[in-house]
Amino acid sequence: MSLFRRRTIAGSRVVVTGASAGIGLALAEEFGRRGAKLVLNARREDVLRGIAEKLAAGGTEVEIVVGDVADPEVRAKLLAAAQERFGGLDTLINNAGVGVFGRFADAQPEQLRQVFEVDFFAAAELTRSAIPLLRQGRDALVINIGSILGQRGIPYSAEYCAAKFAMRGFSEALRPELKKLGIGLLLVSPGTTDTGFFNNVLAMNVSLPWRKNNPRGTPPAAVARATANAAERGRREIVPSLGGTAMLLLNRFFPWPIDWYLDRA
Ligand SMILES: NC(=O)c1ccc[n+]([C@@H]2O[C@H](COP(=O)([O-])OP(=O)(O)OC[C@H]3O[C@@H](n4cnc5c(N)ncnc54)[C@H](OP(=O)(O)O)[C@@H]3O)[C@@H](O)[C@H]2O)c1
Which atom of ligand 1 is nearest to the CA of 96? Predict the structure, then answer.
């Protein structure tokens, strides 16, 4: 093991939620390439099955659990699959997420609940249920996919920002508790990433000024690579994009230009 490597992905048993597309798919591919055994979850069965077949053809051991991660039965099945197929769990990746964009005053109350159900409650409860398995795992780790919007709120995204801030607070609070149980926690806060995320939102009732030119963002494969490297090196938190890192630094030390821009957005 190199000086900087504290964890070996090869042979580890990994659950990934939201693995049928975007960052979750890239994480499945990256962890699979590095030798992990995978339990993948998403709602679209045909897509997930196709991904599993492709990964298996490349030599990765894969199990799938189809369904909504907000459903407690689906979460229980995910952990049971890791136990039954691979004999346990070493890494849980809470990735599944959904957004809603528009004026908070005009939005449906159900949308706030739905965003929290998927982006926060499902991840928190899956983590809670996974702790007994992770305690028996090797170099156990929880990876939470947050967002830079969990560190800086922006207008027309109140529900999503609130859920991602919750994810950050939860991760920070839980990390020392998990450490005592021998489980690490890595929070990944991507900036804009080149996935179908903005096409899959619950609602898009506003034209977001910062998306006018359709910025493509960081490739999901780069986010997945940075995440796997951070997991191996035992990092606690990463922002896997230069733009995201620059925005958060500006926000911390010199926030007024961002406030000025957002007040007028
Ligand atoms: N893209 C960005 O700019 C960006 C930036 C920062 C953070 N993030 C975060 O990164 C994570 C992944 O987003 P992405 O960009 O990869 O989005 P995406 O391309 O829309 O992919 C979302 C994935 O989650 C699955 N999913 C959605 N709702 C689900 C549910 N209720 N139960 C199970 N699976 C569900 C989707 O599959 P099915 O439809 O088949 O269920 C899909 O596999 C999210 O947590 C997101 O908040 C994204």
Answer: 24
